[in-house]
Amino acid sequence: MEDLRELYQEVILDHSKRPRHFSEMPGASHQADGHNPLCGDRITVYLKVEGDVIEDVSFQGAGCSISTASASMMTDALRGKTVDEAKDLFDRFHRLVTSDPSHAAENAPAGSELGKLAVFSGVCEFPMRVKCASLSWHTMKAALEGEAGASTE
Ligand code: ZN
Question: Phi/psi of residue 64, each to 5°?
Fold first, then answer.
């Protein structure tokens, strides 16, 4: 278990130091700003949706390592997905990070379906960090729903 936790921390550290798809997107079809006042994380998520497929997704902003890593990994996970699949992933991710740690075993199936995103399962033990991890996802959902922004408050 300790090894697993170390691996998770490495993945999060890697994505926070070298975030993927960290750029503005000219010609984005959807975008929204997210703000987590609790930690001070700010993020803008850009999406290019054609038909109902997410062709491209990127983000910009400034935040703590958890929020940056989460946004980076989200952009990896969403490319090529349909809008419905993205909303479904949002629900699974949200369940993963907000669940009671004592029910971790029940959440294992949800974690395995999330692939690499399961590294954030440890976040539910730190309520302060849950909003950091979910900020990019709330912002992505707001963008897809045509809203200008999302706040974790
Ligand atoms: Zn944060």
Answer: -75, 175
